[in-house]
Amino acid sequence: MTAHPLRRPIPGISNLRDLGGYTVQGGSLRWHTLYRSNEISTTDTDTLSQLQTLGIRTLFDFRDDKQKQKVPIDASFRTKTQIIAAPISVSVLIRSALSGEKLTGTSARKILADIYRSLVLDHADAYKLFFNSILDPNNFPLAFCCVAGKDRTGLAAALLLTALGASRETVFDDYLLSNKYWETPTDVLREESDEVRAAVFTANTHYLEAAFATMSEYYGSAESFVQNVLGLNPARREDVLAQLVA
Q1: What is the phi/psi pair of residue 24, to 5°?
Q2: DSSP helix/strand/coil, 192
Q3: What is the pLDDT of residues 52-87, one digit of tens each?
């Protein structure tokens, strides 16, 4: 699938991209309505100016409190945008999984897959709040984010696209675009091997597959998880389609 030239409206925020144009039930997602992103933070005045042109009314933030304190949202952006917080602390999950173990590429990949399973089993409330937020037409344009815009945000986008009838190929294509756009940090995990860094900083199909497999194992399917756990029943789904599909 070729990315639309408007997929990344602001190059200055590396993983901010428009979800418009994807084929779903009844048409394609509207442009300039839904954005997924890494943490929206910049001191560049030109980037901030471009960000304002998007007219984002709502920012849905999956970062935990410590992450938000480390990289606060720009004050000028906050004055015009409501923030909905649904903190998921993946750092706690990582520390628990490590338990003193020396990381290898294999163990790091297992930890990431386990995190995706935990997102489904332990953090459904955050994703339910996300789906509730897209039911309010006054919240658009809406952006949703985490630190990298890859894992917590990646699953949110995958769930939304799946719920609206996108093909599994489209879901995974969108997920993997983080590998193309996200500028990976150079000051994190510096003591680890390149293989470990790659495992942590890469959007890997194995991780997203682990989330989908967990939904199927515990709830029958991803669609059933969205409907019965996240609350997007058929009537609500039709409302979302009416708002988001052109």
Answers
A1: -135, -175
A2: coil
A3: 999 999 999 999 999 999 999 887 788 889 999 999
Please report the pLDDT score of residue 1 as a whole number.
Answer: 46
Confirm if 182 and 38 have CB atoms less than 8 A apart.
yes
Which one has a higher pLDDT value, 127 or 90? 127
Instruction: Check if the beta carbon of residue 130 is closer than 8 Å to that of residue 59.
Output: no
Measured between alpha carbons, how far is 141 from 60 in angstroms, rounded to an integer?
11
Strand partners, 23: 28
Q: Provide Rg for the chain, Cα atoms.
A: 17
158 contacts: CB under 8 Å, gap ≥ 6: 171, 172, 174, 175, 208, 211, 212
pTM of the model: 0.94
Six token digits for residue 109: 């990949």
- Strand, helix or coil at 179? helix
- Quick: pLDDT tens for 8-30: 889 889 999 999 999 999 999 99
**Is residue 73 within 8 Å of 83, Cβ to Cβ?**
yes
Between helices 168-176 and 205-219, what is the axis angle to 10°?
140
Whether 217 shows a pLDDT value over 70: the answer reads yes
Per-residue tokens: 142? 């809406």
Q: Is the peptide bond before 5 cis (omega within 30 degrees of 0)?
A: no
Residue 28 carries which side chain, given as an amino acid letter?
S
What are the backbone dihedrals phi and psi of residue 177, each rounded to the nearest 5 degrees, phi first? -65, -20
Q: 20 in helix, strand or coil?
A: coil
